[in-house]
TrEMBL record:
Subunit structure of this chain's protein: Heterodimers with GPN1 or GPN3. Binds to RNA polymerase II (RNAPII).
Descriptive protein name: GPN-loop GTPase 2
PANTHER family (alphabetical): GPN-LOOP GTPASE 2, XPA-BINDING PROTEIN 1-RELATED
Keyword Nucleotide-binding: yes
Thylakoid listed as a keyword: no
Species the sequence originates in: Cryptolaemus montrouzieri
Keywords: GTP-binding, Hydrolase, Nucleotide-binding
Stretches that traverse the bilayer: none
Length: 299
């Protein structure tokens, strides 16, 4: 008689944490990708707002931190400024983790999209969001960070090197799989004649020696040649940062990003959604699929 070993398979949950500086396009993206998943891809999906100062939600959140606490309340009750109040709200959420979890467990079989607050210090050195993610990971929530940065920062070498450092330090601090995104790629393409390099220079981040030359010649940064070399060297040594361009108004662009995110958080393996041999193979070697190769058609 065949001996069948029964093991209880834990339920897995998948999703993405949409992070990035204020105004980078997080909320707009959450609204658009929610619609795409739901209406075009038939994926059960829920958006969760964890930004306690979110003003322009273009979706109906399934869970909303603003019903627990808002930045305005924290400012008024504790006499804090906007940044301090936001930090407080995230610490309050960490203390009230059960408030979040009790609602999350009610959302069955849905892919989760978290619209996160924008202050960068929450991801570069504050600990609450990292702690919340760690707790959820232990409960079989498989997330990746979708880190949105405005492509406007490509317009100036010193802004671009800051962007690279921000992305790198966020990747280190949060410790989740990461997909870095250059948002508003439509505007980037429109203004590409004003950029120092071709668009793929900013997305692929392969050879920063050219950037170093510009920094060393810049009116402000030429004073700091050793520092410039050290910063560029740091980014190159880690060799972790590259970007996917996103024009949120283009379906092709959203699908291109979706493919990378599905691989980063493991959704492509763990869900019942049709698996694509090509993407599995390319994931195994860490490559991009043909359709994900840099393509300016959609920008
Ligand atoms: N042209 C263009 N504008 C965008 C894009 N994504 C977002 N925006 C605009 O950027 C602004 C800030 O977006 P929002 O989603 O509120 O940013 P958040 O603060 O990161 O949540 C809004 O006016 C959006 O319409 C894009 O891909 N292209
Ligand atoms: Mg927002």
């Amino acid at each position: 008689m065949a001996c069948v070993k029964r093991t209880k398979v834990a339920e897995n949950f998948f999703g993405q944490l949409v992070i990035g500086p204020p105004g980078s396009g997080k909320t707009t993206y959450c609204g658009k990708i929610y619609k795409l998943y739901k209406e075009k891809l038939n994926r059960e999906v829920a958006v969760i707002n964890l930004d306690p100062a979110n003003e322009n939600m273009c979706y109906v959140p399934r869970i909303d931190i603003m019903s627990l606490i808002t930045v305005e309340e924290a400012m008024g009750n504790l006499n804090l400024g906007p940044n301090g109040a936001l930090m407080y709200c995230m610490e309050y959420l960490e203390e009230n983790f059960d408030w979040l979890l009790n609602q999350l467990v009610l959302i069955k079989n849905s892919y989760l999209i978290f619209d996160m607050p924008g202050q960068v210090e929450l991801y570069t050195h504050h600990i609450s969001i990292r702690n919340i993610c760690e707790k959820l990971q232990k409960l079989h929530y498989h997330f990746c960070c979708v880190h949105m940065v405005d492509s406007h920062y490509c317009s100036d070498p010193s802004k671009f090197i800051s962007t690279l450092l921000l992305s790198l330090s966020t990747m280190m601090q949060i410790g989740l799989p990461h997909v870095n995104v250059l948002t508003k790629a439509d505007l980037m393409k429109k203004n590409s004649d004003k950029l120092d390099f071709g668009i793929d220079f900013y997305t692929d981040v392969l050879d920063l020696d050219y950037l170093l030359q510009l920094l060393d010649d810049g009116p402000f940064t030429k004073k700091y040649q050793k520092l410039n070399a050290a910063l560029v060297g740091l980014v190159q040594d880690y060799s972790l940062v590259c970007f996917i361009p996103l024009n949120v108004y283009s379906e092709k662009s959203l699908l291109n990003l979706k493919a990378a995110i599905d691989r980063a958080n493991g959704y492509v393996y763990g869900s019942g959604e049709e698996r694509n041999i090509q993407s599995l193979l390319s994931c195994a070697v860490g490559a991009r699929t043909e359709s994900e190769r840099f393509d300016t058609d959609f920008m």
